[in-house]
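Q: Entry one of two.
A:
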Amino acid sequence: MPTRDTIQYAPDAGLLMIPGDPTKDLAPGFAVFDDSVPALRTFVLGRLQKENVRPAPPKAKCDAVIPVRVGLVPRPDNDYDTSAVSVAAPPHHGRSVLDRHMGYLYSSALHVTSESIRDLTEEAGTPVGCHGWIELHDLEADDRFDDEDGEDEDDADWEPSRHELVSWTEQKAFGYAVGSVRVLLPERQTVRALVDSYLAAHRQEADRCTEKEPAPTGVEQGLRRALAERLAIRLRTGLSHRAAGGSWGRETELDRARQRRDAEARPLLRAWEAYRSSPHGFRDLRAVTRSVFQHTRILVLDGSGVEVGQYHQPDGPLTLVDERVRTEALDALRAHGVDVDTPEDLPLGGFPDAVVVVGGGRWSIRLSKPGVSRGGLPEAGWFDPDSGTLTVYAAPLAEPLAVLLRRHGVRPLLVTWGAPHEEVERHNLRAAVAPTGISPVSRSSRVTAATQRLIPEPHRRWLDAKPDDREAPAAKAGSLLPPLIDNAAENPYYRRALEALFGSPVDLAERGPCRLCGRSSQSARPGLFYCHGCCALARNGVLRDTGADGAWTEAIVYALRRLAEIEFSGPPSLAQLDRICVPSEDRARVDEAMLCRFLVPRPGSALLSTRPTRPARTWTEWLGHAGLLTDGVRTSMGTATTATDGHLCRSLFERHVDDFLHHRGVAHEPEPAYPRHPELNTTGLRADWRLADGTFVEALGLMTKEAYAAKVARKRELARHHGLRLITITAEDLGRLPEVFAEHLQRGH
């Protein structure tokens, strides 16, 4: 398969060949219908010779290929799309171009070639073609292969079809299973540049000719006459059918496929009317900027941290999981400092329950479906932002999808109907039978059976839901340890995870089997060996909120209650989960605390379907669902609740600190008064706690509020003036409370 960089005429094929590079160019298939099966079968059989077999190109999904050259013929006579391009056998095969017709390029490939092929064909007056290949697959990978079976009874009633052009007997005789025919097409800009370059040279050559030749016919020789004859035959046939039975003739497979999609689309229009008038359920939308490996994204999140949308830089669009939240999402972006305009047609009704997925130079429009993630949704059409063309797969969806694009800030220049690409059609078939519900398991766990027994039977399965078969053999105590998979000296992520969980440096000289999975690991506390994988699971969890409760929900409830009981003496905060607070001497209890962290979902890990049964829960809501906030009252300062020792706390932040002090035996008096001062304290300021040695403690939870920050500044100045010791704690300190109160813990208070 040559990869020249210019269009050249191939005399043996009778085609102007568009060059292609099999290492980087697209190699799509094309739509084959019943009427084109004979020509395609003849073409394929004519190339099935051993000497034609070549190794498969890197991007081909097969074992070998047979290189081919095919014609690309503009077909303005196509009933459904006048820009259609026929894939035909080369002219040297004989007969008319209609007899050599093997199929049509899919709509997704037309935007690459249609206009360029038409211009090249009309001006050069010579048939156009491109390279491609016939896919070949290993016979032994096919379950029909059987060396001992010398008879081919399965082929007795076999007839060629668009799905199987070559019989099984013929494939066995050839030695390969025969797949699809692929055409090799560069990207649109490359095709356009090649055509422009060729036509410029062609015009110069024509200008040098002294004798003016007749104007090119614009199509392959004989095509105009063949098209005219075909049109006359179809008109006569259609009129006779119309006169006899009231119909225009026999339905084709293309007709039936289009009618089926149209029929399936009509009920959606009624369902979308109810959808637009119902509430969306998302709360407290906010925009955030996140950068990972120098890739920056602007996301729109709801109050529980679930991604609701993304603003594609630099100029949009704003894509959403639910079109009903567009107004709130735009407000959130402006509050975040993003200069975004409201589309002129935003108030426009009639938009569908669909999402836009941007990628690869095209916008895929997918229909929402309960219980299915965005990537698994069926595609209803696609938009080419370069040409402004919207292609829909069902006629009733044309107007709703056009409205959806207008809400995204673009107005389609052309709306056309097209059949879905073969890969899209397979995807849509999978989406139609996709299991409802998203797995609550987001990460693999690999704990041993002995470790699993620390968790009650109903909840153990979530700790081994996706075992990793590729892990190293378990390291047993007393045996020779295998090499470290993750060395804390070389892996800063492993080192930081261990040190954060246990609050001390990693002992790089010590190694032992991970207490949870048995792999060779290191420790930040004597005897507490945990591998990088288990540390990551303790910090991130193996479960995620899917918006639909189930058995996994009960495992989360158990884990939260157990952590409150054995580690925190009350409901834990998210920040507290970053540090193991169980005494390191009680190793079994540390193991249990680690496993409970496995079962707790973290905000932002939620993966909801496009239509969940409920919104994702916030951390406070999970604590309430676990029954750990039965006395909680929501106020402007936070959730007021009573700590384990009976002290009233105005927020969960305060409760976490109070429960820590109580759990560690540190005496603390709530709400102590600061000394009076004629300027600094005229209103009777109070601290959050006073410890036994007179130290005042403040939990600073609202420092973003100006009035609150000013009051804290007065308290600090007041403490300095009277010589009081003051400890201030922010939310970031919740994971390091043992260090903050280390002096008081050592005293045994």
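Q: Entry two of two.
A:
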Amino acid sequence: MKHMNSEVKEERTSNKNRIDLFLVPIVLIAAFLNLFKIWTDEYANAYYTAAVKSMLQSFHNFFYASFDPGGYVTIDKPPVVFWIQTISAKIFGFHGWSVILPQALAGIGSVLLLYVLVKRTFGVWAGRFAALAMALTPIVPAVSRTNNIDSMLVFTLLVATWMLFRAVRTAKFGWVLAAFAMIGVAFNMKMLQAYMVLPAFYVFYVVATKITWKKKIAFLTTATVLMLAVSVSWAVVVDSTSADKRPYMGSSQTNSVLELAFGYNGINRLTGNTSVTGSSHKQPAQTEQQTASSETKQNSNSSADSSQSSNQRKSSSSQKMQAPGGGNQNGMFNTGNPGPFRLFQKGLSDQISWLLPFVIFSIVGLFAGVKFKGPYTTKQKESLFWLAWLLPVAVFFSIAGFFHQYYLIMLAPPIAAFAGAGAVALWSMYKQHNGWESWLLPGGILTTAALQVYIMSPYVSSIGAAPIAGVGALGVILALVLAVRKQRKNSLTNYLGAAAMVVLLAMPAYWAMTPIIYGGNSMLPSAGPDSSSGMGGPPSTATNSKQSGFNGMQPPGSSSGNSSSNNQMQPPSGSSNSGQMPGGSSNNGQMQPPSGSSNSGQMQMPGGSSNNSQMPNSFSSKSSSSKRKSGGMNAEVNQKLLNYLTKNNTGEKYLFATTDSTSAAPYIIKTGKPVMAMGGFSGSDPILTVSKLKAMIKKGEVKYFYLSGMGKGGQSDVITWIKENSKEIPSSKWQSTSSSAQQGPFGNGTLYEITLK
């Protein structure tokens, strides 16, 4: 801290040493948090891992990002990140860690890029602190340790930011084009989410460049056109290709990439209308719950090992679902209630908001004395860029109808940048000013420590009271001492300032390590003492927080496990009860098994109170296993079923067909053979009709069907036809136990055979 006052000295030190020695441990910390033990995640997010397995088999599958080797349906995202993952798997071999590696490296790269972006304008110490804050933001390593897209997306947007800053410094239009083209590339990673940074790019270029308004408009218009062209390039190619020559576009309702981009993966995320059942739902609570239920099913095999008691399995399935973490959480996945303080609610605050009060004080300090008409310094211009990134994204997450906790990584770069730049600015004001500006540093430390106590308080049973009390006490003491010693220029004051920064980063550092300590969840990554659940929020009542996540669903053909857990799903109090599960009937928001299935399939979520709607858990990963098969899905294979299907395959293209990707993914990963997810990711895509299925059976493409009762959605007529025209295979031939049928999520699963002539 004592060097923060002298940027000249810092720059000389930086120029003298090609490698910033202070940056080395920061990078090592980021590498540890992002890379350590990723080799234990055997399947990662199995939905995406299965796609990589398929993409390795042919260029056709590679180009379209086909979920299955048969090219039946794609995954629900654009292909760029999965192209990179496939290349990694081609180089290093197909493993869980090889598909995670690109995201882990992107997480480390984001730390380095933020250092470079902040250091040049705000000084070396600002760059160092920004890089450290980025590395220790809990959601950053939590996402980077999976094969989800967001870490690579943020890295790509930071590359675009570097290009934009260079365009302003060099006054070269080519860098403007490159920056906006890079956003177009990011669009082909996660569609409209990439455009969340556009306000920052437009505002910064307009304010920072010293050219005429005519040129500014012309340059930005041209760059935007290029960005749009790059964005839709893959979509136009796919949508222009005959539907019978490519896979169905997964999670779309019209087999269109553009519809997927601007609907399901676009505007619907804001409105909450993310239903993929083909009908138009206007109630956000219903559509959110409906989509969430299908993704919950995908996520069901997190590293929980808790069990269900027999009396729970016998109880009624009409109980309601409670949001994870209890309390007043609206909707699922613990994303809180929409409103101006949503980012401070539990479940979100512990992922991203640890330094937000300090950031607010930093923004005040960085813009102190700024006049609307300018002129603006370089620091003020770049501060405006980060503010124009932070505010629109924060507003989106404050009002959005549906998103997951790990999307919050989009807020990490501006928060970290302001933390670094603000630390230097507030320290300088504290040492040199006599007015109100000198109180910003102690005020920022005090309020940030208070928020961190609030964030940790629901976790007292997991982490103990000592860390919470320690952060609170040290924060208050250091803030008060700094206030008393204001303007005293001596080494003790410098050490106190440094100590305050350490205190504010201590618990974020611990939270960032929780995916390593407790185990992560590859489907719905989050950080915290219950990180293996992928649900965030306070830990459940399970005796072991590592076991507080979803109980895993079983692979086809395995029997239900003996288990007990008191953490089930009920709708949050005060929320709409109109939601229903795909294939189930509406019952005022209560979860119902599909008609005709038994009520013994039960479902549970962490943090809820006991009820009777639980999922069987024999599909959960084993905590003692050296390879974690969480996979976010059924990352297990019933070998007896696989042997039966392989032995009785008479040349059919597909090993078997099932309702959705949950049951299909582990068999694709295991065998590399085509398995048909008839309804795509959630089982609700309108891909298949009875006539199409008849034609496929007559051509000898498929004859075995595994139906578990989930994912009926818009294909109920197909499933009805299968049941009416098939021969049921005795369970003794394919089930791994003597159980009469597979205990699926909401009923008994059955294997059918159909042969048409």
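A: Comment on entry two: The chain has 27 helices and six strands. The chain has a mean pLDDT of 80.
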